[in-house]
Amino acid sequence: MLKNYFKIAIRNLLRQKGYTLINIIGLSVGIATALLIFLFVYDELHYDTFFKESKNIYRVYLKANLGSTAINGAFTPAPMAAAMKADYPEVKVLARLDQQDNMVVSVDEKYYMLDHVLWADSGFFKIFDFPLLNGDPAKVLTEPRTIVLTESTARKIFGDENPVNKMIKIENDTSYYRVTAVMKDPPHNTHLAFDMILSFHSRRDASSTIWLNNSMATYILLPEKYPYKRLEKKLKELVVKNIGPKVKEFMGFTMEEFIAKGNS
Fold this sequence. Notes:
The chain is an alpha+beta fold. The chain has helices at residues 2-15, 17-45, 80-87, 124-127, 151-158, 228-251, 255-260; strands spanning 57-59, 62-66, 69-73, 76-77, 93-107, 110-120, 132-134, 146-150, 167-170, 176-183, 196-199, 214-221.
């Protein structure tokens, strides 16, 4: 019985070849489109989920009103990380990040343009466990003037040579930076796209105490299932405590008065 059904179906398909071709093409396009949409959505929903602690990683976000002007951004002052570490023991690890695009580096008078470069604190690899091909994740960015290269950047600059402990000159800086490790290239589905990571301890503003300059991102790692809203409420106290005196100094009124005027 079933065999006869197949024979009849095939005969009908062959009898109406044009109609059959249109249906097959339409079905194929529909299936292909559905698969592409599924793969796109799957990829978007899995951004940064490959980190072991992905559910416990947070970025400090600035949301405020300055009079009638709304201020929103993922940039924070340099001393915020140290203040959070001192006041909030629930924060396991912190790392400040800053990005610089189109950086020129040189080795033996040969120059290379790197599209995206990160400055990062030593806690970077404790939060974002990108795999290293060599080196200790806990130590590679602890010293000033140290560098971690991605695998493709290491090959671009040093070819097949082992770049560890090689020296690189950064733009117009008269001092050299030492390569401490090479890591695998970041996957495409991460918001952290970079060719090289420089130790944040190399920067002049690494130990800055200026609270009125929001210029870098602050990432934190919290304990498993920790209610982040609890820490979020505490951050307002930290801001009032540290920015309040500066507001009084530069604007002539206290932070409480500033908030009472409709700001936050």
